[in-house]
Structure formats: structure tokens, C-alpha cells
Amino acid sequence: MTKAEKTRNFIVEKTAPIFNMKGYAGTSLNDITAATGLTKGSIYGNFANKDEVALAAFDYNLNNNVSRIEAAMSAQATAKGKLLVYVSIYQNFIVGTISKGGCPILNTATDADDTHPALREKALKAVLSWKKRIIKLVEEGIANKEIKADSNPEQIALTVIAMIEGGIMISRLTNKLAHWDLIMDSLKKYINSLG
């Protein structure tokens, strides 16, 4: 890895939590320089603009999330067990042990919906990829006779995603972890009822 690549990675690693907490509009160049200890010239010597830093920060946050989910899923033998991994991993977003600021998909989708088309596109691709992954898990569960044969994989995927992201939004907005627990209890019951 070249010195320039190391510097870019350092900038992304240090600013990813800030973009996740404050969003694109809320993150200033001063936030970036404060987090990295680098000058504005160093930042712009490695990135053309704040947009590039934000896009790279989203990728970094998303990849960390996906890596944790895949690692936890590899320890599960069943499709239902793998689906339940989402509950436990996202629980860590709620309590702040994984990522400062919560779920990068939800944060970016909300922040960039009407203001930043490139970030919105990244968030959309992340949701569609997540949906595709859940559909594949449900199809595996159907093939293994863990999940009812007449189940609609797309409907299940959208329900799981909506419950997780909606649960995060409600619990963070109300500042009540109990709301998350109630919604995730419903999601666990839903997943367990699939078979």
C-alpha cells in the first residue's frame, strides 16, 4: 500500500463515524481536519472534495457492517438462525457498540434522500443488496424445508428490513431502547413463524 493509499484509508477511517453521526450536510471540513489532525490541503490532496470523502466513508461503514453480519452468519447452520443474526447485529447499533451514530444505511438514506443523489444511490444499492441476501436465505430455508414452501421471499425480506430500520428509527427518535426490544421481539416471532 502506498503512502497516499494509507493516508486516504486513514482519512476515511477517522471520518466515517462522523459522517454516520452528523450526516453529509452536518459534517464540515473542520470536523474532518479535527478528526484526522490533517490540514485542509492534505484532505484535498487525497480527495477531490467532501463528496468523495463522504462516499468513501459510507462504503467503509457499510463494509464493516456487512463483514460483521457475514461472520456471525457463518456460525449459524439454519436459514432462520442466519435471519436472526440481523436482530443481534443491529442490537449492537442501537447500544452503540458497533458504530457511532447507528445504522449507516438508515442514516445515509434519510440524510441524502433529497440532497445528495450519489449518497442516495449508495444507500439504495445497499438496501437492494440486503434484500437480495435475505431473499437468498429464505429460498435456502424453503429448499431445506425450514421455511414454508408457500412463503414469499421478497415479502419476507422487505418485512425484515422494514422492521429493523423502523425499529432503529423509532427507538432512536423516542430514545427508548424498550421500543427496539418490543419491535425485535415481534421480528423474532415473525422469523420463527416462517417454518
UniProtKB/TrEMBL annotation:
UniProt signal peptide: none
Keywords: DNA-binding, Transcription, Transcription regulation
DNA-binding region(s), chain positions: 28-47
InterPro entries named in the record: Homeodomain-like_sf, HTH_TetR, Tet_transcr_reg_TetR-rel_C_sf, TetR_C
Record-linked Pfam families: TetR_C_13, TetR_N
Molecular function terms, GO-annotated: DNA binding
Domain HTH tetR-type as annotated: residue spans: 5-65
The protein's name in its UniProt record: TetR/AcrR family transcriptional regulator
Organism of derivation: Pedobacter chinensis
Organism phylogeny: Bacteria, Pseudomonadati, Bacteroidota, Sphingobacteriia, Sphingobacteriales
